[in-house]
Specification:
The complex is a heterodimer of chains A (147) and B (141). By secondary structure, chain A is an alpha+beta fold. Chain A is built from four helices and six strands. In chain A, strand 5 and strand 6 form a beta hairpin. The longest helix of chain A has 12 residues, at 61-72. Chain A starts with 10 loop residues before the first strand and ends with a strand. Chain A has helices at residues 22-31, 37-40, 42-47, 61-72; strands at residues 11-13, 18-19, 84-93, 102-115, 118-128, 134-144. Chain B is of the alpha+beta class. Chain B has a domain at 6-20 and 62-139: Thiol Ester Dehydrase, Chain A, CATH 3.10.129. Helices cover 23% and strands 36% of the residues of chain B. Chain B has a five-stranded antiparallel beta sheet with strand order 1-3-4-5-2. The two termini of chain B are 14 Å apart. The chains are: A alpha+beta (147), B alpha+beta (141). Strand 3 (84-93) of chain A pairs antiparallel with strand 2 (80-87) of chain B.
Chain lengths: 147, 141
């Protein structure tokens, strides 16, 4: 098994906080072709009770990508990125992300296993707001395809 | 946009089926917006060299499109409490003007005691099920 099993439980704190901005939300919403006004227009978001525009439900993959990139780039972990495909993904929300959020994120390796010639690496990224409250947990399982 | 009311939801009801296009240009734009620049999503030569049939869509692009079936149904994207999928087959995106299509359907599985609703999603592309175990839990007023 090429992935180092000793890395189960290892944590990768993001080196800096992530600030959610209106511009990045707009860029992401346009990239998924979803022009919902609650993503793009402050007045619409406020009319729905939000402090500012909110982010699409899958937006926190950006936070997870950053964390998983730290893990994947860790040479001691032993992941061949060229053979990685995405196996599954989950989000558990305490509330939606909105523009102005400054998030602290921590990524943890929660599972490493072999299955049918492939290796499965599961990462969990937890994002908290500046007030310490939980915002979202993103779970990501990566399949490292056997050669 | 009006919000869906919990009382108006019936178990077993189907959400309107939608078809979403996915072209190479969508993948390039999604790569930039998401930060996932894995070349299997934009470089055919690379994709084939690692044993894939062609360039494939980001799983997260498919998950985002499928999520629109939920968020357009509830009228409030902030209604999503949980959203989880398993990627069961790749969405293969040819290098032409049409690209591929992802067809997404949904069904209300349960109304839960805590005021949430559980929805099951299906997603197909090119005759294959591209998502399985696709589930969303939404909190409705």
């Amino acid at each position: 098994m090429a992935i180092n099993p000793d890395y189960l439980g290892r944590e990768y704190p993001a080196p800096e906080t992530y600030e959610v901005t209106r511009g990045k939300i707009r860029e992401f919403a346009e990239a998924i072709n979803d022009l919902n006004p609650v993503y793009l227009d402050q007045a619409s978001a406020k009319a729905m009770g939000y402090p500012d525009v909110i982010a699409p439900p899958t937006f926190p993959v950006i936070l997870g990508m950053a964390g998983s990139a730290l893990a994947i780039a860790d040479p001691e972990l032993g992941v061949d990125f060229s053979r990685v495909v995405h196996g599954d993904q989950s989000f558990h929300y305490s509330r939606p992300l909105h523009a102005g959020d400054v998030l602290t994120t921590l990524t943890r390796i929660t599972d490493i296993k072999a299955l049918g010639g492939n290796e499965l690496l599961t990462l969990e990224t937890v994002a908290e707001a500046a007030d310490g409250q939980h915002v979202v947990t993103a779970g990501m399982m990566l399949v490292v395809r056997g050669s | 946009m009006s919000r869906l009311d919990y009382k108006a939801v019936e178990v077993g009801a189907r959400l309107p089926e939608r078809t979403f296009p996915v072209r190479r240009s969508d993948l390039v734009r999604y790569a930039g917006a998401s930060g996932d620049f894995n070349p299997i999503h934009w470089n055919e030569r690379f994709a084939k060299s690692v044993g894939l049939p062609d360039v494939i869509a980001h799983g997260m692009f498919t998950m985002a499109e499928a999520g629109r079936v939920i968020t357009d149904w509830t009228g409030d994207p902030g209604s999503i409490v949980d959203y989880a999928v398993r990627f069961s087959a790749p969405v293969v995106v040819p290098d032409d003007d049409e690209g591929a299509e992802i067809t997404v359907g949904g069904k209300v599985k349960s109304k839960n005691e805590d005021g949430t609703v559980t929805v099951l999603l299906t997603a197909r592309s090119g005759g294959a099920k591209v998502l399985v175990k696709a589930t969303a839990v939404v909190r409705l007023p």
